[in-house]
Structure formats: C-alpha cells, structure tokens
Amino acid sequence: MTNCNYHSIQTMGTVDGPGIRYVLFLQGCCFRCLFCHNPDTWSGKANTMSVDETVADILKYKNFYQNSNGGVTVSGGEPLLQIQFLIELFKKLKSENLHTAVDTCGHVDITDNLKELIKYTDLFMLDIKHLDPETHYKLTGKNNDKVLRFLDFLCENNKSIRIRQVLIPGLTMDDEYINYLINFLKKYKLEKVELLPYHDMAKEKYEKLRITYILK
C-alpha cells in the first residue's frame, strides 16, 4: 500500500473542479513559480497518509460529492510526482463511483504509469504558466516543452481538460499574449479555459519561509 506526502486537505472545495470536492494538496513540486501562492508545498516536512486512510476519509463526505456532481481533486505542489499513489487512490475512488481530477503543472514524462493513471482520471486541470519558453523558464525555473507535450498527450487520449492561466500584469495579461493564448488553444478540444486573477496573498508565507517574493 502506497503512502502520500501531503500538505493539507479541504473537504468542501468549490474552485478545483465541478461541484463540491475533496481537495488533497500533495507536498513537493518541480517548479518554483515566482507567483506561487503555496510555496510551503515546495519541500519540507509533510504529513503522510495511506491510500486506504485517504479513501476512508473521503467516503465520510461521499454524499456531498455525489449529490453536487463533485468528487475528488488532487493538487499540490505537483501531484504527478506521487503518481503511484494517485493510481491506487483513483482506482479505489472509481469503484466508489466518484469523479476524479488532477490539478497539475504538466511537467511530466509520458510513462507507463501516466498511461495507467489517465484510465482512472476524469478531468485534468492543466496550469499554463506561459507559452513562451524563455519567459516560462524565468517564471518557473523549467522549460515548457514537457507541459505542451503533456497537453498533446491528453488530447490524443480524449481526456477532459481545463486550462488554467494566471493573469499576471506585465507577463500574461496584455492583449497580445491573450490573443496568442486563444489562437494556440483553438486546435485543442477543451472543457474550459479559466483565467485566474493574480494575487499576492502569499507574501506572508514567503516572509516566514525566508524566500524573496520577486513579484512584490
């Protein structure tokens, strides 16, 4: 039985997928986004929980999720860093007839584990940080080639996809970039595109973690 390293849990989430949702935030991330609002999920001490313990906790609220056409979302950090846990968890959740979703940055290799996971995942919420490779690297510390390849992979396998783009003044908020984003996404079959407002509510977290908040 696989354990997860997790940061926190929301049992009545309403912004991470359809309906009311159980949102599990896993610990650990491969990006270091300058605008991240959860820098405390990057590394450090984590809670642990087994697949069976997680399922038991979720089932306490099953009626709320099913009656609202909701379900379970695993976010982070970056959940695909703990993909074996996701596979085992989602298999059990599908046997309980619960909707499953992953909120991911998409920086992942196309492995056999990923091909197994998508069988049990109803929705992928893919966070597009920036379409320009150089700007993406400045924002996250990583290139975006894997992210775009992951998007192609999901579409090739007819998965439900929501694209999420944070609107950052001076970076992703001007007309030129938005039009570029629209034209880029036209070729994909998407459930929804969510434009998320930039905020700096995590500045206190950065101060406590002694991390410089670059976008202040």
User: Which sheet architecture does the biggest sheet show?
Assistant: 8 strands, mixed
Give me the number of helical elements. Answer: 8
Q: Could you give the distance between the termini?
A: 43 Å
The average pLDDT is: 95
SSE class: alpha/beta
**Low-pLDDT residue intervals, each spanning 5 or more residues:** none
- Please tell me what the overall shape is: globular
- Gyration radius, to the nearest Å? 17 Å
Strand content: 15-25%
Fraction of helical residues = 25-40%
What does this structure look like?
With 216 residues, this protein is of the alpha/beta class. It is 33% helix and 24% strand. It has helices spanning 51-59, 62-67, 83-95, 112-117, 133-140, 145-156, 175-185, 203-209, and strands at 3-13, 21-26, 47-50, 71-75, 99-104, 123-128, 160-167, 192-197. The protein has an 8-stranded mixed β-sheet with strand order 3-1-2-4-5-6-7-8. Strand 4 (71-75), helix 3 (83-95) and strand 5 (99-104) form a beta-alpha-beta unit. Helix 1 (51-59) crosses helix 3. The N and C termini lie far apart (43 Å). The model has no long low-confidence stretch (mean pLDDT 95).
